[in-house]
Amino acid sequence: MYLALLKEILSIVNHENYLNGNNIVEKIQERIKKKDPSTYAEWEKKNFDINYKFSGDDYFGKKELTLLHLACLYNQENVVKALLAVEGIGVNLEDGSGKTPLYIALDKGHHKIVRALLKAGADPLLRGRCNKNLAEIFTKKAIGKAVDLGAHIFIIASCVAAIVVTYAYFFGVSLSVGAMAGIAVAAAVLTGLVAGGIIYEVLKPCDELKEAIAKKISKLSQNSAVDDSKPDCSREKILEQAYCYH
């Protein structure tokens, strides 16, 4: 099944009225059965598991994603909220590439979906297949883009310096000088260079994500204090591990 078809199906369902946890699966079933009977049959064999990974093709190859991953990817907010109300939904489940719904929504800049996922219990400190959490992944991506842009760093750094503070606030941590430079340049990479100046749009702070990270760290710290045999889960230790690049 092509991902474009799944995107079309979810887009149609997203605009239907009164979506909720009791009818969302049935509505998606009906559309898939009509558009792609073979995919419907495969899903039926799995008893229409809400966490079933649909195998789809796009321009980059085959991918395996659950309905929640797909809805987050394509910014289908109403579908996401209805799916999150379904019993047994895997809010922290990884797709075939090791990405959680929260990672996908954050990467795409779908802020309302990020908030809905966090409210439903998405773990911002969960380490994926690459053994990195969200803060580490996005900081490292920023540094990579900085390296790619290299020669232009001094030209554009002043235009995006304020964005560094935004990202530091977003993750609720203090970043190294190298990471800050990388983030600043990465923000500029997302911009369009036009006559007369630089137009840019970057991921804005999300209070819910910052609070979720703080709560998660606090919970881990409390658990560690109760049982001395557990690893050091202090805020300082966790942040030290999260931002250690080797």
TrEMBL record:
<keyword id="KW-0812">Transmembrane</keyword>
<feature type="transmembrane region" description="Helical">
    <location>
        <begin position="149"/>
        <end position="171"/>
    </location>
</feature>
<protein>
    <submittedName>
        <fullName>Ankyrin repeat domain-containing protein</fullName>
    </submittedName>
</protein>
<keyword id="KW-1133">Transmembrane helix</keyword>
<keyword id="KW-0040">ANK repeat</keyword>
<dbReference type="InterPro" id="IPR036770">
    <property type="entry name" value="Ankyrin_rpt-contain_sf"/>
</dbReference>
<keyword id="KW-0677">Repeat</keyword>
<feature type="repeat" description="ANK">
    <location>
        <begin position="97"/>
        <end position="129"/>
    </location>
</feature>
<keyword id="KW-0472">Membrane</keyword>
<dbReference type="InterPro" id="IPR002110">
    <property type="entry name" value="Ankyrin_rpt"/>
</dbReference>
<feature type="transmembrane region" description="Helical">
    <location>
        <begin position="177"/>
        <end position="200"/>
    </location>
</feature>
<dbReference type="Pfam" id="PF12796">
    <property type="entry name" value="Ank_2"/>
</dbReference>
